Structure formats: structure tokens, C-alpha cells
Amino acid sequence: MSRFTFFYRNSLSIVLITLMIIFLTGQFFAGWKTENKELVESGQSALKISEYIHSGHFIQATFENWESEFLQMLLYILLTVSLRQKGSSESKSMTGKEDVDREPVAHPKAPWPVKKGGIWLRIYKHSLSLAFAFLFLVSFILHFYGSLKDFNNGQMMKSKPVITAIQYISESRFWFESFQNWQSEFLAVAFLVLLSVWLREKGSPESKPVDMPHDETP
Predict the structure, then answer these.
(1) What is the pLDDT of residue 2?
(2) Residues 6+ apart with CB under 8 A from 196
(3) What is the DSSP letter of 99?
(4) Contact at 8 Å (CB) between 98 and 80?
(5) pTM, whole model, 2 decimals?
């Protein structure tokens, strides 16, 4: 029997997912009140909770943010394979190969794709980036769907014609929603990479040891 409890072994993911659920719930109810306030002010009927959950307003707001997070992680994973930042805890070392660079070797406790080999191993070697690419694509599509739905709802409220998905993909509004989130995600990662050169957080795996020189890459 493990000497560690289930929560201790999985506390990081449990806390992060719990925080996500709490803030998503807060977003939902705040968005519901905001949308209903705008609807009432324009002479429309307020939405019930069951109606708001599949409204364009909620879908667009939710997946607009998820999309940017998954894109950030996808590109960060791919860029850190070959790019370096001297002195940063987020970078691989300047010289030589690291453990993550070596070719996988089948052994009794290895994941099954490693033992299987062939196409399964080739896919598994890039499965992390593929997973984030899939999550980004799904979120991008749902963001687009929600944004289009929300835009057309606004058009109908103004007694204006609705537009098709083909027409909306060229609208500046959708790309403004995406770009404003994408740029902020990469700014945050850039600051993490650069600040970890000079600043420390004792006990965090995202930081170098407190006494490590600034110009040394872990």
C-alpha cells in the first residue's frame, strides 16, 4: 500500500481542476446576468439558466479562452524542443542532449506503445503535442460556432440579416476575439521564461535553485 494518500499523489491536478470549476461557475452566472441585463435593456426576454448554457454568449466566451490556452501550450511544447533561453529554468541546457531527447527503449514498465513499436510508437512520441493540437482545434471550432451564434442573435435583435459561417470567418470581430487572447498567452509565457533567469521561488519546479547563478541553465 502506498504511504501517500490519493489526494497527496494527485493534489496538483485536483486543486487546478477544482479552481477551474469554481471560476467557470462564476463566469457562467456572471455572464448569465450580464447577457440578461443587455437583453432586457433591448426589450428582449431574459434567458433561463438552461437556455444560457447553450447560448452563443456563453459558448463563445468559454471556448475563446480555452482555445488560446491550448494554443499556448501546444506551441510552447514544440518550441522548447529546439529553442533555448540561456539561464531560464524553462529551457533545456545550451549544450548536449538531455534525457527527454534519447530514443525510447522497451522495458517491462514502459507504456504499451513503446513496447508495441512501429506506428504506435511514432504517434506516442508526439502524443502530447497532438493532444493539445486536437484540444485547440475543438476549442477553435466551438469558439467560432459560439461567436457566430452570438453575432447572429445580435443581428436578429437589430432586425438585420444573419450571415453564414463562410461570411463570418472573414469578419474582424472573430479574429479580434482570438488575437486578443493569443497575444496575452504568449506574453505570459515569455515573462515566465525570462523572469525565471533572475527570479526564484524556493520549492517550485518552475524555478531554478535559489543559489544557482543567473547565467546557468538547469
Answers:
(1) 66
(2) 88, 89, 90, 206, 207, 208
(3) G
(4) no
(5) 0.93
Distances (CA, A) of 173 to 62, 170, 197: 16, 9, 37
Contact 185, 67 (CB under 8 A): no
Residue with grid cell 440578461, as numbered in its chain = 36
Task: Say how far apart CA 151 and CA 176 lie, in whole Å.
Answer: 13
The neighbour count for residue 160, using CB atoms within 10 Å, is 10
Give residue-wise pLDDT tens across range 11-41: 999 999 999 999 999 999 999 999 999 999 9
The DSSP call for residue 101 is G
Q: Are 214 and 87 in contact (CB under 8 A)?
A: yes
Residue pair 218/93 in contact by the 8 Å Cβ criterion: yes
Nearest 10 degrees: CA dihedral of 22, 28, 29, 30? 100
Asked whether the beta carbons of 189 and 164 are under 8 A apart, the reply is no
CB 212 within 8 A of CB 218: yes
**What pLDDT, on the 0 to 100 scale, is given for residue 218?**
84
Write down the residue that cell numbers 453575432 correspond to.
151
Q: What is the pLDDT of residues 104-140, one digit of tens each?
A: 999 999 999 999 999 999 999 999 999 999 999 999 9
- Looking at residue 56, its pLDDT comes to 97
Strand segments (E) across 80-145: none
- The owner of cell 527527454 is 100
- What's the helix, strand, coil split of the chain in %, to 5? 65, 0, 35
- Determine the Cα–Cα distance for residues 75 and 185; give it in Å rounded to an integer: 11
